[in-house]
Amino acid sequence: MVFKVGTVLGFKRKNKHFSMQKLLLKNIKTLVSVYDEAPKILAGTAMKKLPCITDAWLACDNGIIVDFGSMDDFPGIEDWKDLEVIDCSGKIVMPSFVDSHTHIVYAGNREQEFVDRINGLSYEEIANRGGGILNSAKKLRETSEDDLFEQSKNRLREIISQGTGAVEIKSGYGLDLQSELKMLRVIQRLKKLDWIPVKATFLGAHAIPPEFINNKAGYLDLIINEMLPAIKKEGLADYLDVFCERGYFDEFDTGRILEAGIKHGLKGRLHAEQLSHSNGIKTGIKYGALSVDHLEFCSDDDIKCLAGSHTIPTILPGAALFLGLPLPPARKMIDGGLAVALASDYNPGSCPSGNMKLMMSLACIQYKLLPEEAINACTINSAYALELQNEVGCICRGLKANMYITKSLSSYATLSYAFGTEAIDTLLLNGKVWK
Ligand code: NIG
Ligand code: FE
């Protein structure tokens, strides 16, 4: 039998560079989330489905998944030139995680507040005395762009090593024009590394900065009339986010900002119903937000409204765990027919971890998602939440070859079951082994 990566899919080698990065995975115990055509977003009972091939092979060429199948039908190898072969006996191959909500560009950390919380202060009490987001804003303003880039690059490397193959990153610790631009420029520099796809979200409305403490209207004007146009001019953001929350930005502020974003071509995504029921979900839906995230105080009525919308509810179990918040009704959402996404919220104040395998474990253990639902929530559905469904999120011909080979595992359920354990053996990004 013969196998020629360049011809299996009818690719013609137009230039000598084309087939320099060929990779073949063979004897894969289970190839997970396999589709002949890119799937639609998975909603309700469809979230339980996880198509797999047992005893499989997969070929990548030039960073793209070009073919796969069962070892029984493996066509063999004709052209060994520049071909790297990895034997995956006993191992599972998974599409990389898509983390659709992070704040990994920040300066320093907030370990002191962690201790304050252990000693009994709440997240809101810490924020009210100038800590919290404002504490991070103070540190960020004092940090140079280069230093911020280096700190953030280390976090990007960290989450990649934990299996994340596409990520969204928010601004929101600058809270003045220059510092917000600095954060967004750092995100652009992370994009340009070309390690994994990165989407940038402008979150100027994350908190009211000290210089506007009694002048929220003035800060809203700054966001709408100065920050948004400057960001648009430099093309620094893909999306717009607002922390719609008691003591931060109410539903009317949120609506105004979302509306201004739409005028600048930025779709919304929101921090909604995290610490209280603040009508973020309904506001997000009204303005066509791509996602509403957190949802600890999501009501039955909100679930009904989400069911009639295209807005993707996203749970962030790391933050709910870290802050001891009530759990969002994720099970009810899925049972109500929604397409739920799962992300980390990696940030210094409410979730100092971007470990998506751990987020899946929390989703299963605490929220009663099935292992299949947890995997779908942080791959296909979170890819949709970033409009990256044609690039990443599953194993499909033509998608980017971002995936990981596990250690020897009994099944993909072990990823969630064995919480806190290391499961990745080899990471593949753009069809190449990531060192
Ligand atoms: O997603 N809730 C708002 N923003 C972050 C926390 C930010 C911080 O505390 O630094 C979150 O939980
Ligand atoms: Fe967040």
Description:
By secondary structure, this protein is α/β, with parallel strands linked by helices. It has two domains: 115 residues, Urease, subunit C, domain 1, CATH 2.30.40; 288 residues, Metal-dependent hydrolases (TIM Barrel). Helices cover 34% and strands 22% of the residues. The protein is built from 16 helices and 18 strands. Strands 1, 3, 4, 5, 6, 16, 17 and 18 form an eight-stranded mixed sheet that branches. An eight-stranded parallel sheet has the order 7-8-9-10-11-12-13-14. Helix 9 links the parallel strand 11 and strand 12. Helix 6 packs parallel to helix 7. The two termini are 33 Å apart. About 3% of the residues have low confidence. The structure holds N-(iminomethyl)-L-glutamic acid and fe (iii) ion. N-(iminomethyl)-L-glutamic acid binds next to helix 4.
What are the SSEs and their pairings?
Elements: H1 5-8, E1 22-32, E2 34-35, E3 52-61, E4 64-70, E5 83-87, E6 91-95, E7 97-99, H2 111-118, H3 123-128, H4 133-141, H5 145-161, E8 164-170, H6 177-192, E9 198-205, H7 216-234, E10 239-244, H8 251-263, E11 267-272, H9 280-286, E12 291-294, H10 300-307, E13 312-315, H11 317-323, H12 330-335, E14 341-342, H13 356-365, H14 371-377, H15 380-385, E15 395-396, E16 403-408, H16 413-417, E17 424-429, E18 432-433
Parallel strand pairs: 1-5, 1-6, 2-15, 7-8, 8-9, 9-10, 10-11, 11-12, 12-13, 13-14
Antiparallel strand pairs: 1-3, 3-4, 6-16, 16-17, 17-18
Helix pairs in contact: 5-6, 6-7, 7-8, 8-9
Bound molecules: N-(iminomethyl)-L-glutamic acid (NIG) and fe (iii) ion (FE).
Fe (iii) ion (FE) is lined by residues 101, 103, 271, 345, 347.
